[in-house]
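User: Show me a protein chain along with its predicted structure.
Assistant: Here is one chain, sequence first, then structure tokens.
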Amino acid sequence: MRHITQDGLDLIKRYESFAPNVYICPAGYPTIGYGHVVKAQEKERFASGITEPDAKALLQLDVSAAEHAVLRLITVPLTDGQFDALVDFTFNLGAGALQRSALRRKVNREEYADVPAEFIKWVWAGGKKLQGLLRRRNAEALLYRS
């Protein structure tokens, strides 16, 4: 199976940063570690926080799920930069967002020149345009073009 490169993993870690305790992300989800959304059945597990090594292990599991989704939903060959950008997008927004997006359709139609602009459409959370998401989508678009 294909995996994200270190550049892609670094991108995720840069925008997620490590949080040892549960916090509510801008989209309104309880989150811990490197962007792990805490599910209802995990609340007790993370009530006292998480260590950075445990957060890195959890990140690997979450990234693996995003990798699988990209491999399942994208049917054309991808460069490492393209794959990494799509895994970051999917990690951040979920497989459902990728599945229903014009971004996925344009990638699968090999409309590569149109793809970077599609990333920029996904900068809203909780009804607000967030500068952090705009920076992240721009970084994904740049990585996709690389």
